[in-house]
Amino acid sequence: MQIEKKDIRALSKDQLRDFFVANNDKAFRGNQVYEWLWSKGAHSFEDMTNVAKTTRSMLEDNFVINHIKVDTMQRSSDGTVKNAVRLHDGLVVESVLIPTETRTTACVSSQVGCSLDCNFCATARLKRMRNLEAGEIYDQVIAIDKESRLYHNHPLSNIVFMGMGEPLMNYNNVIKAIDMITSPEGLGMSPKRIMVSTSGIPKMIKKMADDDVKFKLAVSLHSAIDEVRARIMPFSKNFPLADLREALEYWYRKTKNKISYEYVVWKGINDDKASIDALVKFCKYVPCKVNLIEYNPIDDGEFQQASEESILAYIKALENIGVVCKVRRSRGKDIDAACGQLANKEGSVD
């Protein structure tokens, strides 16, 4: 029976060094290979030109490099780029490059499908197939960095974990990927330019605070009334707002980093005065800012974009208590690349 080879990128540098020593080679070979894997983005062992052929053959016999492949790339009329990324097992996720005049942002996925059940999100309608490995998350960023340089003449400037999946349900791999993205041995990007967006899992928010992470935190809130939030995001019945509030207060005490609340206003759901008042109250607990996000329909009529008047009422109420509030207009809607639209319409397997 053939033994499935391990992805070599699952090994730390020390583990690579130990592997070479155990196979009667020099420990520094581990450093060389590690650099090829992460800094140089080698797709095969044959790419490692300063490593002896016999050593490359030994690596080939023991490991694989499960690199992603950008299957299809779509460019929006507004400059947004959406990648359909095929994984080594044939599954597909999507990632997005969002350009502005001053920066380019990568929106990356952390799961194939999603662990949660938000009713307004196309991704949530896909069952969770599996978590992405750290290398697969890292590869999405590398691909978008190359596109940023190609189409916009400068490197990628920001990363948001707002693609497919709930990042905190794939915590270890997300953290490992961010560690490599921010490492001088990887992309060397500042963690302050990275934002992880969660639907709100209190236990994991506290863990991030305990782990002293340096990146920013966003919470998909959408309502500060438990009953309304449970209608929009049924899983939140298990994570009441009181628990979320406690976790966010803990986060701020430990990190001193503001929270960003992602918030969509829907007609007839959370566009009333009670919803506005509840959000205003919730925003007083922890220093924060609010991003009001334009809704992108996913083919049914249950959720509809609220009126401009309702949006303005939210803005006025939040500004009255000194909370910065911005309206985020969606990008890439013509290629289904906007928030909540990532759903692998091309299919997931050959």
UniProtKB/TrEMBL annotation:
<dbReference type="Pfam" id="PF04055">
    <property type="entry name" value="Radical_SAM"/>
</dbReference>
<dbReference type="Pfam" id="PF21016">
    <property type="entry name" value="RlmN_N"/>
</dbReference>
<dbReference type="GO" id="GO:0002935">
    <property type="term" value="F:tRNA (adenine(37)-C2)-methyltransferase activity"/>
</dbReference>
<dbReference type="InterPro" id="IPR048641">
    <property type="entry name" value="RlmN_N"/>
</dbReference>
<keyword id="KW-0949">S-adenosyl-L-methionine</keyword>
<dbReference type="InterPro" id="IPR013785">
    <property type="entry name" value="Aldolase_TIM"/>
</dbReference>
<dbReference type="GO" id="GO:0070040">
    <property type="term" value="F:rRNA (adenine(2503)-C2-)-methyltransferase activity"/>
</dbReference>
<keyword id="KW-0411">Iron-sulfur</keyword>
<dbReference type="GO" id="GO:0046872">
    <property type="term" value="F:metal ion binding"/>
</dbReference>
<dbReference type="GO" id="GO:0030488">
    <property type="term" value="P:tRNA methylation"/>
</dbReference>
<keyword id="KW-0408">Iron</keyword>
<feature type="domain" description="Radical SAM core">
    <location>
        <begin position="100"/>
        <end position="334"/>
    </location>
</feature>
<feature type="binding site">
    <location>
        <begin position="220"/>
        <end position="222"/>
    </location>
    <ligand>
        <name>S-adenosyl-L-methionine</name>
    </ligand>
</feature>
<dbReference type="GO" id="GO:0051539">
    <property type="term" value="F:4 iron, 4 sulfur cluster binding"/>
</dbReference>
<dbReference type="GO" id="GO:0070475">
    <property type="term" value="P:rRNA base methylation"/>
</dbReference>
<feature type="binding site">
    <location>
        <position position="118"/>
    </location>
    <ligand>
        <name>[4Fe-4S] cluster</name>
    </ligand>
</feature>
<dbReference type="GO" id="GO:0005737">
    <property type="term" value="C:cytoplasm"/>
</dbReference>
<comment type="similarity">
    <text>Belongs to the radical SAM superfamily. RlmN family.</text>
</comment>
<dbReference type="InterPro" id="IPR004383">
    <property type="entry name" value="rRNA_lsu_MTrfase_RlmN/Cfr"/>
</dbReference>
<comment type="function">
    <text>Specifically methylates position 2 of adenine 2503 in 23S rRNA and position 2 of adenine 37 in tRNAs.</text>
</comment>
<dbReference type="InterPro" id="IPR040072">
    <property type="entry name" value="Methyltransferase_A"/>
</dbReference>
<feature type="active site" description="S-methylcysteine intermediate">
    <location>
        <position position="339"/>
    </location>
</feature>
<feature type="binding site">
    <location>
        <begin position="165"/>
        <end position="166"/>
    </location>
    <ligand>
        <name>S-adenosyl-L-methionine</name>
    </ligand>
</feature>
<protein>
    <recommendedName>
        <fullName>Probable dual-specificity RNA methyltransferase RlmN</fullName>
        <ecNumber>2.1.1.192</ecNumber>
    </recommendedName>
</protein>
<feature type="binding site">
    <location>
        <position position="114"/>
    </location>
    <ligand>
        <name>[4Fe-4S] cluster</name>
    </ligand>
</feature>
<feature type="binding site">
    <location>
        <position position="121"/>
    </location>
    <ligand>
        <name>[4Fe-4S] cluster</name>
    </ligand>
</feature>
<keyword id="KW-0489">Methyltransferase</keyword>
<keyword id="KW-0963">Cytoplasm</keyword>
<keyword id="KW-0004">4Fe-4S</keyword>
<dbReference type="InterPro" id="IPR058240">
    <property type="entry name" value="rSAM_sf"/>
</dbReference>
<feature type="active site" description="Proton acceptor">
    <location>
        <position position="94"/>
    </location>
</feature>
<keyword id="KW-1015">Disulfide bond</keyword>
<keyword id="KW-0698">rRNA processing</keyword>
<keyword id="KW-0808">Transferase</keyword>
<feature type="binding site">
    <location>
        <position position="296"/>
    </location>
    <ligand>
        <name>S-adenosyl-L-methionine</name>
    </ligand>
</feature>
<dbReference type="InterPro" id="IPR007197">
    <property type="entry name" value="rSAM"/>
</dbReference>
<keyword id="KW-0479">Metal-binding</keyword>
<dbReference type="GO" id="GO:0019843">
    <property type="term" value="F:rRNA binding"/>
</dbReference>
<feature type="binding site">
    <location>
        <position position="197"/>
    </location>
    <ligand>
        <name>S-adenosyl-L-methionine</name>
    </ligand>
</feature>
<dbReference type="InterPro" id="IPR027492">
    <property type="entry name" value="RNA_MTrfase_RlmN"/>
</dbReference>
<dbReference type="GO" id="GO:0000049">
    <property type="term" value="F:tRNA binding"/>
</dbReference>
<keyword id="KW-0819">tRNA processing</keyword>
